Amino acid sequence: MDTKWSPYLFVAPFFVIFGIFGLFPLVYTAWVSLHQWSMGGSGTFIGFENYLELFDDPNFWNATINTLGMLVLATVPQLLIALVLASLLNQGLRRLTFLRVGVLLPIVTSVAAIGIVFSQIYDRDAGMVNGMLGLIGVDAVDWRADKWSSWIAISTMVNWRWTGYNALIYLAAMQSVPRDLYEAATVDGASRIRQFWSITVPMIRPAIIFTVIISTIAGMQLFTEPLIFGQGSYAISGGSLRQFQTLSMYMFEKAFRDFDYGYGSAVAWMIFVLIMLLALINFLVMRKGK
Amino acid sequence: MPVRLRRTLLATALAGALAATSACGGEAEDSAEPGKTTLVVKTFSQFGYEQLFAEYEASHPDISIEEENIGKLGDYLPKLQQWIATGEGAGDVVALEEGILSQFMANPQHFVNLFDHGAAELESNFLDWKWQQALTPDGNKLVGLGTDIGAQGMCYRTDLFAAAGLPTDREAVGELWPTWEDYLATGKRFLNGGTGAHFFDSSNGIYQNILMQQGDHTYYDTSNNLVIDSNPAVRTAWDMTIDMVESGLSANIEPWSPQWNAGFKNGKFATIPCPSWMLGTIEKQSGPENADKWDVAKVPGDGAVRGGSFLAVPTQSEHQAEAAELVKFLTSPEGQIAAFKSKNNFPSSPQAIDDPAVQNFTNDYFNNAPVGKIFGESAKAIQPVYLGPDNNPIGDRVSNALVAVEQGKLSPDEAWKKAVEDAKRLVN
Known about the structure:
The complex is a heterodimer. Chain A is mainly α. Chain A has helices at about 5-30, 50-55, 60-90, 95-110, 110-120, 130-135, 145-175, 180-185, 190-205, 205-220, 225-230, 245-255, 260-290; strands spanning about 35, 45. Chain A has a two-stranded antiparallel sheet. In chain A, helix 3 (about 60-90) packs parallel to helix 7 and helix 10 runs antiparallel to helix 13. The mean pLDDT of chain A is about 90. Chain B is α/β, with parallel strands linked by helices. Chain B has 19 helices and 11 strands. The two termini of chain B are about 35 Å apart. Chain B is globular. The longest helix of chain B is centred in the N-terminal third of the chain and has 19 residues, at about 5-20. In chain B, about 45% of the residues lie in helices and about 15% in strands. The chains are: A mainly alpha, B alpha/beta. At the A-B interface, helix 1, helix 5, helix 10, helix 12 and helix 13 of A face helix 1, helix 3, helix 11 and helix 18 of B.
């Protein structure tokens, strides 16, 4: 076959699939977001009116703050713990494979199962956390009623699930750090902690950038955990005062509960824009630190 | 993971793509059995049609029926919307809960006019208000035929009532609360009884119930203007509910949550306003160990309904005539009686309600309560209520405001203001 065109043929499947499942939906969603679009499947073109309304919508900003708040609460501890975990696993421990598999286990658990189990742990009347708080004389907390408490409850679910996954990525990166760097540092009298910050962390920077960006994207799309945590007949609002409604939940509520596809699409596009922004910030900060 | 966003976008994209192609129609022809027409019926929760389908297939050898059921109404609604929006997937018959129906009444063009299939002569088979609900304002188009109605009773725990020194006999219990004020007074007596349980599960059910008894209309007037803050009916229901919450009657347990399910088992609340379709849920959640502890009395005020469904034929169906015939069969008085016996879905047909099979029907889990009679009286006593297009989403927002009061997060005044503002923002 001719060598000039065949490479394009080989890479074509990716671009075709991306075009159908990635690019087209993106553009189509943008198109819908410019309409007053309800049940009928088409609607009147209203330009950027949905976006203007959105900027004036306290529920949208509330969802944005909730999403960013839980993103920070879930991502920062998750990545720090993963780093520590990975460096522990990187020591010459026995039964290492067993432990490595162990940290990976939470990731194979279904999100729904995690949501249900943690919802019970944080139950107001019969939950384990309130039970333990009771032992030390603290009053029971209605975890769904406040922003801070619901954010903590949801963030623990995310942390529990993804920490091991990130730890394994770090571990893989750590394995390729040359041993002699550590030996030289030991000869120079650097402590283990000093070695960790001055050798390990800088050497695995690409892995850290990768996990930060991936976790940010995942955090921006947080949906199942808060939805299951919310419970009840109208869980999509994320609590009585939208204490823990995320952007994805708000998008779903507008499109599928309120029958307003145009507005829902506008929210979807804002999620996309926010993710791009955050990814860019991450990238710039990380590059500057180099 | 990015998969989630992509999936959402994908769904939207497919919706668009399908909308574009569906005009040229042509779904794969009935593959199952040659020469037979397969009718796909989409339902949620439980409609109790298994027996009826078998019967219908036996008398119509050229028809085979497939039921596709989705467990929860909340999961059914978004799917139904996608089917309707994309013009693909809705099958031949769809079930519409009354709140969903009122949302769809703004776009009746997606459903077949059942008048074109001889439904006009069936009017006397349905309670008048049930018939009106599926009728366009100009009276020219009938979108659906009624299946069941959520006729209300008040379910209560005899063991908790006895422990609190209240009567347990269902007649005597019904006499405790001719009105909601009496219900509140009884609730206070119950709390003084020191059982540790609350009087009802959450403000949600109580509020809905009082609201639906105020008659005529709720958040919208009959010309679809939003009247949430000027309709005294809404304010009355709100104020009464707030009174009960402030008197400590509510256990503040969200309906349909795991705590709610556990609450039935552990006796966390003594009463719950129960539409007939909820009896099955109560029985299932309370479990056999609580058999005979539940009973059903009349609901305070003059009867009420909450929920209840319709069957409609989407215009995308390729077998509209056959589907309409099936709808007429399933919603006939006989069909409704069969569904009631199977799953407690209370008939919307006066003939079916008066039928001895319904009138004499008792529920052994609830101390052999004559539920057919109790719910029948409730259904006949009520005044029809008009529900506007965004009735359900507005209802959600009002309930949330009530929950915020229960949780102590908002004062009643703040909560009321918020509910009104939310409703206005939604409609604009």
